[in-house]
Amino acid sequence: MDYRLYVLNSDGKFADVEEWRCASDEAALELAARRAHAYGAELWQGERRVSTFAGPMSAPDPYPGA
Fold first, then answer.
1. Total-model pTM
2. Can you tell me the distance from the alpha carbon of 12 to that of 33, in angstroms, rounded to the nearest whole number?
């Protein structure tokens, strides 16, 4: 199956994408978990979001004090 890992930037927007062919969701999840993504990432298979990964650096709060 085809998967895409969308890497997020500091604004929480898609900054980069990696495309893979994996045998299963589990294999794609393992591969995605090993990737470094400072601000997080989303793993997709077609139009289905498989998982979201938080990065060690958090995106700035767009509504501070709200």
1. 0.81
2. 18
